[in-house]
Amino acid sequence: MVARSRSVRRPIAPAAYDCVKLIFVRHGSAILLSEFGEKPVKVGDVIALAANTLCGSKPEGSITVTTIYLDRDYIVDQVFWQHAALLADRLDAQDFAEELYSEPAQVLHLGEDRAGMLMPWLDELVALSLDGPTPEKFYRMQALLFGVLDVVAPHVRTTPTRRSPTQRRAIRLGTLSPRNFAPLRAEARQAVDLLRDAPEQRWTLQSLADAVHLSPSQLGRVFGNAYGKSPMTYLATLRAQQLARLLRETDLAIEQAMREVGWRSRGHAARMFRQAVGVTPTRYRDLVRQKAAA
Q1: Which residues form the signal peptide (predicted)?
Q2: Domain membership of residue 269 as a residue range
């Protein structure tokens, strides 16, 4: 989590970030350019943007905003604990969150009075973010954020969704690099789109680099800066997510499900899945069925 305040006087071209953004308008007004088209925003409005959502703005004179940048995995963790009685694990929580918050860009009209109550908390979050997060600041930043979200969340439009309870153990796949929440380069977004559209393909770093017209080393650097992990680690995570979904929602044999998501070796697939979810695919399916029968 990072919070920053800034004043803008010139148009900002649409850019996407690999994080969730909450933008609080403190002064002035602008025309927002996003996936919902063009919309005016003014003091008292909050813009909620999902990760990888293009957004730009044209200030009407000038506009001052405070932006809270939230890591996607952090959001998924909060959704998991908020709905822990319904969700199996973090992968299930990710699917749930994508269905629950299906609108990638929203303008929330809090009003000047309600938004004004948040300004001291936002100012403190910005001050605490200046030197980066530290363990000593952790609880205060969480408290401030939750106070802000408590006011903002009732205004966020959601989509009704349901999930079946299964198992709850999950860990993260791969070691993450520090995040700087910089705008995503087009090549990084293109590479992610290719992996998401066809995770079952026999991707190598070289073939993915060729597809986005970069060298493997360039792609590794660009991708790591954008998403905090290597392209192949990202691919393994996608495959683990899809395999977990198939194990929950279909009766496919485990080995067939592994092939469906792009893993040809059962041993390798089981090892990668366990790194992502915390249990083997066989144990995962057993836990799903036990919960369903309970």
Answers
A1: none
A2: 186-293
Q: Does residue 99 belong to any structural domain of this protein? A: yes
- The predicted pLDDT at position 167 comes to 34
> Do 106 and 47 touch, CB atoms closer than 8 A?
yes
CA distance 88 to 228: 25
User: What is the CATH number for 119?
Assistant: 2.60.120.810
pLDDT band at 49 (very low <50, low <70, confident <90, very high): very high
Per DSSP, the three-state class of 188 is: helix
pLDDT-derived band at 178 (thresholds 50, 70, 90) equals low
Given CA atoms 34, 102, 199, 172 in this order, what sign does their dihedral have?
A: positive
Q: What is the percent of the chain where pLDDT is above 90?
A: 66
What is the average pLDDT value for the chain, to the nearest integer?
88
Measured CA to CA, the distance from residue 169 to residue 244 in angstroms comes to: 12
Which amino acid makes up residue 47? I
CA–CA distances in Å: residue 187 to residues 120, 145, 201, 203: 39, 32, 19, 16
DSSP secondary structure of 216-276: HHHHHHHHHHHHSS-HHHHHHHHHHHHHHHHHHH----HHHHHHHTT---HHHHHHHHHHH
Angstrom distance (rounded) from CA 17 to CA 239: 23
Q: How many domains does the chain have?
A: 2
Sign (positive or negative) of CA dihedral 202, 270, 88, 139 = negative
